[in-house]
């Protein structure tokens, strides 16, 4: 496994206050069998590469209900050798025309799309996070904006016209936290609204006790300051008010 993936995996486990490396092996996960899949492409761009397979990617469950999907296996070149980084399953239920192309013999032009092309650049290995003072999560909604978030020195994936939940790497510190958003408004269809919304929650880690919301921000403005610094401060009063 790549050094990048090792550190990302370790940070996610530590941020959930789980023991490392023991938690890596707590949930067995067998890689899908590729022997019955069709190899669509093996491509390298600089120090990044992937292989693409098409077919019924079995991740567990009823074999009769497994849909056709694309399995992407990603690799990085580290010190002159290729190492496995991660896998991704691309579901095709809403794209019957792509399924037809993959099952046929015609040229598959979609393989030239950016999402089917290795990025050509290996991501920087993040720093090792510490055990969090406050285990935390966040929800980021970014519609009509391209948004990059950084929390206490850790970067998160760029979000555009999407909503996602994250564990906060390293959690939230007691006192002030360094939270910033780099925001770029994007074009939106006529009649639709923009929405940039961010919520942070402190997780109690106790059964039956819901997370405590400790911060909320939202805007629909087309003109917005970037980078945007957000005052996420954790105190006993903030935690009490959120309960």
* Overall strand count: 11
How many DSSP H or I helices? 3
Mean pLDDT: 90
**From the helix content, strand content and strand pairing, which structural class follows?**
mainly beta
Supply the number of structural domains. 2
In summary, what is this structure?
The protein is mainly beta and 243 residues long. The protein is globular and about 65 Å long. It folds into two domains: 3-116, no CATH class; 136-242, no CATH class.
Keywords:
243 residues; mainly beta; 2 domains; seven-stranded antiparallel β-sheet; four-stranded antiparallel β-sheet
Walkthrough of the structure:
- The chain is mostly beta strands and 243 residues long.
- The chain has two domains: 3-116, no CATH class; 136-242, no CATH class.
- It contains three helices and eleven strands.
- Strands 5, 6, 7, 8, 9, 10 and 11 form a seven-stranded antiparallel β-sheet that branches. It has a four-stranded antiparallel β-sheet with strand order 1-2-3-4.
- The protein is globular, with a radius of gyration of 21 Å.
- The mean pLDDT is 90.
């Amino acid at each position: 496994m790549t050094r990048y993936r090792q550190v990302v995996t370790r940070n996610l486990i530590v941020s959930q206050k789980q023991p490392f490396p023991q938690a890596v092996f707590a949930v067995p996960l067998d890689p899908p069998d590729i022997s019955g899949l069709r190899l669509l492409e093996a491509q390298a761009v600089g120090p990044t590469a992937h292989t693409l397979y098409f077919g019924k990617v079995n991740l567990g469950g009823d074999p009769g209900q497994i849909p056709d999907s694309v399995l992407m296996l990603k690799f990085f070149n580290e010190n002159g050798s290729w190492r496995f980084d991660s896998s991704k399953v691309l579901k095709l239920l809403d794209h019957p025309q792509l399924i037809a192309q993959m099952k046929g013999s015609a040229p598959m032009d979609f393989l030239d799309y950016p999402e089917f092309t290795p990025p050509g650049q290996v991501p920087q290995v993040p720093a090792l996070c510490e055990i969090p003072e406050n285990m935390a999560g966040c929800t980021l909604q970014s519609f009509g904006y391209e948004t990059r978030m950084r929390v206490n020195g850790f970067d998160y994936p760029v979000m555009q016209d999407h909503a996602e939940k994250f564990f906060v790497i390293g959690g939230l510190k007691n006192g002030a936290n360094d939270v910033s958003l780099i925001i770029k408004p994007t074009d939106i269809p006529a009649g639709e609204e923009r929405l940039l919304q961010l919520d942070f929650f402190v997780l109690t880690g106790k059964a039956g006790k819901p997370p405590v919301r400790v911060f909320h921000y939202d805007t629909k403005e087309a003109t917005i300051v970037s980078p945007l610094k957000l005052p996420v401060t954790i105190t006993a009063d903030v935690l009490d008010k959120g309960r």
